Amino acid sequence: MKLWAGRTGGDVDERLSAINNSIGFDSRMFRQDITGSIAHAIMLGKVGVITPEESAQIAEGLKGILADIESGALTIDMTCEDIHTFVEATLTARIGTAGKKLHTARSRNDQVALDIRMYLADEIDRLSGLAKDLISALCDVAEQHLETVMPGYTHLQRAQPVTLGHYLMAYAQMLLRDVDRLADCKARTLVLPLGSGALAGTTYPLDRAYTAELLGFNGISLNSLDGVSDRDFALELLSDLSIMMMHLSRFSEEICLWCSWEFKFVTLADRFSTGSSIMPQKKNPDITELVRGKTGRVYGDLMTLLTAMKGLPLAYNKDMQEDKEALFDAIDTADLSLSVLAPMLRTATFHPANMKKAAAAGFINATDCADYMVRKGVPFRDAYGIVGRLVKHCIERGLTLEELTLPEYREFSLVFDEDVYQAIDLLTCVSQRKLPGGPAPEAVRETIRATREKLQ
């Protein structure tokens, strides 16, 4: 059955059906389509467009269809044009003439706009929950490593000492922003388009605010043309997911590097690792490589919808059917990526000794050595130059700053004394950076507390 049959006659070319039909992907919105239709039927009965008896009959019929699909008693007919057609045809087959009245004062244009908004709102909640679980995992592991000293990097060069706890909490902050963005997106998603009709509203006396209330929406769209043609909320979600996947990709890159023998900061559990078909010694971090790679898919999904929308005149155009596959792919990709990283992190084994060894070999306490001289009254720029020469001296002799003798220090400046060794101790270097947001254990502990509070 074609909902638009009448204007055209005869059978359609099978190639038209192949390109036109969307049930292959929009069938996943059956819950939202049925729930939205129940609210629409209840509203129609309230305002007298259909009788209360018809309204109740339609609502009960739709509830039965939903229950049967969820239980497996009813299989969605994939030869239907779309999920809307299937639901309406099934309803009419079950309850008769009353089922034909469901679509009164509604177009598929505003119906699909409602379905996708409802679907995305549900998915935003689920993705936010997965992101929060990963944040919790980051907090848990960070709390175990408040004093695990490691190198911090700029330009991928060892720069200054931090802790593993501080490092992990940087990603927790990124994900917190992602959760905030998703919440903002949901607020703009829950705007009811139903009542916009095909593009010009309807002459029926609908109570759009009541339908919005039934569905838990924040309000109604204020322009019928915009109501059916707006996909900003979908683009916003794709943008938010692209940013989040970028964060997951950066984290994945760290894990890939840290798993290498050149770093060996972490070993992934066997259940989250793969091997080689030819090299028996290999243990590969394929999970993080794939998350890193899948990020490009989500970027592509965003570009797909941006490109589809860029030249469309008002109001609805069939190009907009292309929104769903891009959205569903991005959601599925983000779901899988978030789902796998949290348990991978919780079961990983970190190697503090290797981290500390790398930190000690990189002169990452050089800034602290300069700060020591400043506290002794040496201008920073002079101190900077002296410590630079000290580092060069160490490199030429294969030493670290900790291994220099006090007489060697005093060859460069007489302000050096025994207390220099305490000042350049790596844990001291970290512990003194206790400003809010710093790597000192007490500062990281407070960041973890504040982060967990936000998760509530």
Spell out the blueprint of helices and strands.
Elements: H1 14-20, H2 23-26, H3 30-47, H4 52-71, H5 83-95, H6 108-144, E1 149-154, E2 157-163, H7 164-189, E3 191-192, H8 208-215, E4 219-220, H9 224-229, H10 232-259, E5 266-267, H11 286-309, H12 323-346, E6 349-350, H13 352-360, H14 366-375, H15 380-397, H16 406-412, H17 420-423, H18 426-431, H19 441-455
Parallel strand pairs: 3-4
Antiparallel strand pairs: 1-2, 5-6
Helix pairs in contact: 3-4, 3-6, 3-8, 4-5, 6-7, 6-12, 6-19, 7-10, 7-19, 10-11, 10-12, 11-12, 14-15
What does this structure look like?
With 456 residues, this protein is mostly helical. It has three domains: 14-104, Fumarase C, Chain B, domain 1; 109-148 and 158-202 and 217-354, Fumarase C, Chain A, domain 2 (Up-down Bundle); 357-439, Orthogonal Bundle (Ribonucleotide Reductase Protein R1, domain 1), CATH 1.10.40. Helices cover 62% and strands 5% of the residues. It has 19 helices and six strands. The relative contact order is 0.10. The model has no long low-confidence stretch (mean pLDDT 95).
CATH topology of the largest domain: Fumarase C, Chain A, domain 2
- How large is the share of residues in beta strands? under 5%
Q: What is the residue-mean pLDDT, rounded to a whole number?
A: 95
Count of separate DSSP helical elements: 19
Return the structural class: mainly alpha
Backbone shape: elongated
- Named at the architecture level, the CATH assignment of the largest domain is Up-down Bundle
Give the strand order of the largest sheet, numbering strands 1, 2, ... along the chain. 1-2
End-to-end distance, in Å?
A: 49 Å
CATH class of the largest domain: Mainly Alpha
Question: Count the strands?
Answer: 6
Q: Which blocks of ≥5 consecutive residues have pLDDT under 50? A: none
Domain count, please report it.
Answer: 3
Rg from C-alpha positions?
A: 30 Å
H and E order? HHHHHHEEHEHEHHEHHEHHHHHHH
Quick one: CATH superfamily of the largest domain?
Fumarase/aspartase (Central domain)
Q: Approximately how much helix is present in the residues?
A: 55-70%
Q: Biggest sheet, open or closed, and with what strands and sense?
A: 2 strands, antiparallel
